[in-house]
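Pilot study result, target chain (460 residues):
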Amino acid sequence: MSAQNVGSRVGHQAFRLHIVTWNVSTAEPPADVRTLLQLDLHPATDLYVIGLQEVNATPVRYISDLLAEDSWSHLLMDTLAPMGYIKVTSVRMQGLLMILFAKQVHLPFIRDIQSTYTRTGLFGYWGNKGGVSVRFSFYGHMLCFLNCHLAAHMNYALQRMDEFEYILDMQDFDMHNTPNVLDHKVVFWFGDLNFRIADHGMHFLRSSINNGRFNLLWDKDQLTMMKKKEPILQEFEEGPLRFKPTYKFDRFSETYDTSGKKRKPAWTDRILWRIKPKAIETEDENSSTTSTSSADDDEYPVKVMQDMYTCDVSYGVSDHKPVIGTFNLEMRKKLESPLVTLTVDGHWSADEDATFTYTILENFESSTWDWIGLYKIGFKSASDYSTFAWVKDDEVAANGEVVTVQIKNELPLLAGDYVLGYYSTNMQTLIAFSRTFQILESKRAVMEGQVPENINGHEK
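Predicted structure:
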């Protein structure tokens, strides 16, 4: 079913979610990830969630990545920003990395962003295994994304389950209504979960794979087997494994391990999801029937429909192939209005001071450290501004108050399309945008010869 058909239900809309999980085996990224992100699909994706494992995390490299974006984040931002996607947030724990991107139009309705991580490998000391998560409300619906790298090797299936349950127990959020991962309305759990294909010999495995008879292997997939006896796994759904096992390949090849170890192929890399179950009605000591199912869940349900579950074997920098899951999230918006409006006054150019106004529409935890940035269309993240101005610096603006702000002598000299964005320090995200407007080429730019073909003295 297409997103448009799903969204045709009265009051409901469908949003396209694209998840990638990839164990990149400390490799540098490939030159191009456009096919991995399926940028040519229509309708376009609304949210991208990219979960990586084994990003190069040597101590020197890890420290340098803390000071500046890692090479994978750079490539993803460089690829997605020109298409109108903005990096909302990311979380990193050694080799584990998760990044959230969204269309600009959705940012004012992505709120309550929090992230956390849990170490499990090497007694939790170095963080080579574990989980990172990002939670947020999307148009008022609570979503959580959990990217895990669990214990390796065939015989550690039970340890993988213990690690997963430990991660769920240890991760908490400063939210009264969703303090834990499983409190969220929808949870997506993905990563290098490291479950293997048990019992079958190498010849049978490779013969089944070469003949496309993946179904012969499903019954011995450890995660599938675990689902039959682990109640927590039974709450999670997964699409059928109709793609090649994603581990272990020779690098830059579609051939499975030809080294002396000859490791068996396996579906180590997975994407699952869980919709919060409705509470079951129970009878208390006084025989009265009680239920914790909220009216909100009934009035604002979320439906998750998977469009695609596959791997892309064309990428060879790692011994794992990336796995892609695309989904339609069908929901009724709880939020329709941004928290702030921004209005641009007059014509803007670097030849004169610029003026704009902002108005607080709803109560939120605003701060005198909030700021409003000027962003050129195609910007990558909240920090990718051309210039900025602090909000009213003597006191927090009151609801409905129209506040006027000036930007002096700091506008770009060359013409271009821009937006203003209000950044909330407490929410750690952009919560409002102005309409798109044009900054005119300044007289000074003309005098200095800074025409578009010769920006800052460098030929395009």
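One observation from the pilot: Confidence is low (pLDDT under 50) at residues 1-8, 281-293, 453-460. A full batch analysis is planned for the follow-on phase.
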